[in-house]
Amino acid sequence: MTAKIAILPGDGIGPEIVAEAVKVLDCLQQEHGLEVEMETANIGGAAYDESGSPLPPATLALCQAADAVLLGAVGGPQYDGLERDLRPERGLLGLRSELQLFSNLRPAILYPQLANASSLKPEIVSGLDIMIVRELTGGIYFGQPRGIRELDNGERQGYNTLVYAEHEIERIARSAFEVAMKRNKKLCSVDKANVLEVSELWREVMIRVSSEYPEVELSHMYVDNASMQLVKWPKQFDVIVTKNMFGDILSDTAAMLTGSIGMLPSASLDQNGKGMYEPIHGSAPDIAGRNTANPLATILSVAMMLRYSLGQHESAELIEQAVSEVLEQGLRTQDIADGGSSVSTREMGDAVVRALTN
Ligand code: IPM
Ligand code: MG
Fold first, then answer.
1. Residue-number span of the structural domain to which 323 is assigned
2. Which of 181, 208, 239, 312 reaches 20 to 30 Å from 350, CA-CA?
3. Tally of domains within the chain
């Protein structure tokens, strides 16, 4: 059966990098027998500009009907003044929530060809391969009540709620244990159980679920220490599982360890393996429209999509090999060029397609 992919280019560099990923999908269709149907829709600021909503009903319907979603990026300074519910980020958060994409896989891999791109010493990061499993549809991002209220003395007070029900912790725990089973079987749960009741429950449920995975070694770490350990000796980690907001923060740190956030893909999965795939980096409005952004994270997101949602493992590997090959050839976009000469977004995409064709 032909898989349906919803393509959401979004804002900033989104359209440029997604165009290169679509080239790769086209090439796999023409050269390697992949069968997919792609349909494009607006999200984020682009959708707001067109229809007044960052997540128009037609976009949501397309994503609901699709087997997988490929997203570029959302957001831009021109939207900062909008009411919260109309901001581009709301489109992304709405999709995560509506599609129940609770499990966010964010790998941080150091490509040997890019060992010098990290700001850390090579011996600390060489061979780095970490997977952060971030809970994505709960916690303080979605907890009620939330808002800004007026106190009796007339002063305003902002408030959000950090809540996790047991079933939410259980399902992200299982997802993380499953990931660990396919890797080095080491799972570190990151929490703040010394201060927060919600973390106390999180830890309790993690320990309970661990009895179903006796082969996986489960450890626990407070989030402040985890942020320190990530830069001190990141190779101690295999898989990290954590709450929505801790995962947002730690995954940026982990990505930066590799020195090339422009290289890192991500997957956001529901209970049945349907997923949304996007680069970890954002919309980079400062370089939008210049044909200089790195399309490799988006292209690698397609590889994750083929592997996790479409069961096309061979095509996924072909893409990963092609990316490795262009790096081997010395091709670099500006972000990973280390001051040396660089190629454009389109040239990089074309090079990957060429590597796939040979
Ligand atoms: C991310 C981003 C988003 C988040 C923003 C754009 C809403 O930072 O995917 O990490 O906070 O989850
Ligand atoms: Mg983030």
1. 1-102+271-358
2. 312
3. 2
User: Per residue in 55-91, pLDDT tens?
Assistant: 999 999 999 999 999 999 999 999 999 999 999 999 9
Last residue within a domain, chosen from 200, 228, 257: 257
Structure confidence by residue, pLDDT tens digits, 169-226: 999 999 999 999 999 999 999 999 999 999 999 999 999 999 999 999 999 999 999 9
What's the CA gap between 354 and 300, in Å, rounded? 16
Active-site residue, from 67, 238, 248, 335: 248
Residue 262 lies in a domain: no
**Contact residues of ligand 1, CB 6 A cut-off:** 75, 89, 92-93, 248
Q: Which ligand is nearest to the CA of 283?
A: 1
| Separation CA 191–CA 26 (nearest Å) | 42
Contact criterion met (CB below 8 Å) for 21 and 298: yes
Catalytic-residue membership of 248 = yes
Cβ 99 vs Cβ 122: under 8 Å:
no
CA atoms 92, 93, 95, 100: torsion sign = positive
Conformational region of residue 330, where left means phi above 0, alpha means psi within -120 to 50, and beta covers everything else? left
Closest ligand by atom to 142 CA: 1
